[in-house]
């Protein structure tokens, strides 16, 4: 069948409507009619070819919620009309250094066909066809636009809290209050932490406090912050003052980097003398995603989103790039 989608045809180009041919699903695949798709900053990195690996035309989209439309003949756990979610990962190689250690979300061969929109058409489309391994059942009455961004932005911030063993009552920092950052604030609050939001946008203070931040910081040089926080998560898609954030960590604390920075240059002294750690985080395993979906349901956590019809996808991207989005742009695919 012919499928309508939106694609960038060259680096940094505006997205344009295109059509492509989609064959019937293979044995273990399903075709999902996309209802909503979040716009993650990773889509923008790819549109802009920031990592010099984008193949054009590029159809972005990896925060998908939709309705199962067709199932392959070996598929038994999904049926037509099921409501489902899908994030960055659609499979793993099962053989690499990560997969053989149980770190499926860190599969080093992710870009050889295991990520939703790299080397294959993503979710800014009428339909998406994927194997079922990383597709998640969702309740039929779910707010699809709210759940879609959790499939990547949500899990990417939920996972480090577990990886780095953040506990209730701890003081934690979230750097960069965008799509990922606003989830980190809500999750930290939901886990019973004291939350410090670090932002370069003073106008976000009131809203950021409304969604759960106890403190809003624009001046990181404030001496009162030194050695204060056990855990800091950076969601900024750029380099920040890494050494100052290491100073803000309490002894034994961890700085987790999930925003795609360029070059993390830090002094070794505080890592050695105060046993501070720096680590990363890459989406999350299937079990973690299920755990997150249960957590957001129990804690009644939703996404702060702005809905855009798909034909205004370029307006949505502009709003993200100008820092004006609050806090995730979600595309409504029903009008494609
Ligand atoms: P976003 O919605 O655009 O938010 C980024 C936030 O960072 C902005 O709202 C802004 O917050 C802050 N910021 C500070 N300096 C900035 C700069 N120079 N350029 C842009 N923003 C700046 O992006 P997102 O969707 O949350 O994604 C954030 C990063 O995470 C991206 O690099 C993305 O590729 C990455 N990511 C990683 C994974 C993973 O698995 N590790 C998964 C998903 C996304 P303030 O106004 O509060 O300063
Ligand atoms: Zn993403
Ligand atoms: Zn692998």
UniProtKB/TrEMBL annotation:
Keyword Oxidoreductase included in the entry's annotation: yes
Family annotation (PROSITE patterns): ADH_ZINC, D_2_HYDROXYACID_DH_1
Coiled-coil residues: none
Keywords: Metal-binding, Oxidoreductase, Zinc
Cofactors demanded by this protein: Zn(2+)
Keyword Transport: no
Domain of life according to the entry: Bacteria
Pfam families from the UniProt entry: ADH_N, ADH_zinc_N
Gene Ontology MF terms: alcohol dehydrogenase (NADP+) activity; zinc ion binding
Domain Enoyl reductase (ER) residue range list: 12-331
Family: Belongs to the zinc-containing alcohol dehydrogenase family.
Name the UniProt record assigns to this protein: NAD(P)-dependent alcohol dehydrogenase
Species per Swiss-Prot/TrEMBL record: Candidatus Dojkabacteria bacterium
């Amino acid at each position: 069948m012919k499928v309508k989608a939106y694609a960038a045809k060259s680096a940094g180009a505006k997205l344009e409507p295109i059509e492509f041919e989609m064959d019937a699903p293979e044995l273990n695949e399903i075709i999902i009619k996309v209802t909503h798709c979040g716009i993650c900053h990773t889509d923008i990195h790819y549109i802009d070819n920031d990592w010099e690996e984008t193949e054009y035309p590029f159809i972005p989209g990896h925060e998908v919620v939709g309705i199962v439309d067709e199932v392959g003949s070996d598929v038994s756990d999904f049926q037509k009309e099921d409501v489902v979610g899908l994030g960055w990962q659609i499979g793993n190689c099962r053989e690499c250094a990560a997969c053989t250690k149980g770190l499926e979300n860190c599969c080093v061969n992710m870009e050889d066909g295991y990520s939703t929109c790299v080397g294959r058409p993503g979710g800014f489309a009428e339909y998406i066809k994927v194997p079922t391994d990383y597709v998640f059942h969702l309740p039929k009455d779910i707010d699809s636009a709210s759940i879609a961004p959790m499939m990547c932005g949500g899990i990417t911030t939920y996972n480090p809290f577990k990886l780095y063993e953040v506990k209730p009552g701890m003081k934690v920092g979230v750097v960069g209050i965008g799509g990922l950052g606003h989830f980190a604030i809500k999750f930290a609050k939901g886990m019973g932490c004291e939350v410090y939001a670090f932002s370069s946008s003073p106008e976000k203070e009131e809203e950021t406090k409304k969604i759960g931040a106890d403190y809003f910081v624009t001046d990181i040089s404030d001496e009162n912050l030194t050695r204060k926080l056990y855990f800091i998560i950076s969601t900024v898609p750029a380099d920040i003052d890494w050494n100052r954030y290491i100073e803000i960590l309490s002894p034994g604390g961890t700085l987790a980097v999930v925003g795609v920075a360029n070059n993390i240059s830090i002094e070794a002294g505080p890592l050695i003398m105060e046993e501070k750690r720096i680590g990363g985080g890459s989406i999350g395993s299937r079990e973690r995603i299920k755990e997150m979906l249960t957590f957001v349901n129990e804690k009644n956590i939703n996404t702060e989103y702005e809905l855009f019809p798909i034909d205004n996808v370029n307006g949505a991207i502009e709003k993200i790039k100008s820092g004006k989005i609050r806090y995730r742009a979600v595309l409504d695919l029903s009008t494609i």
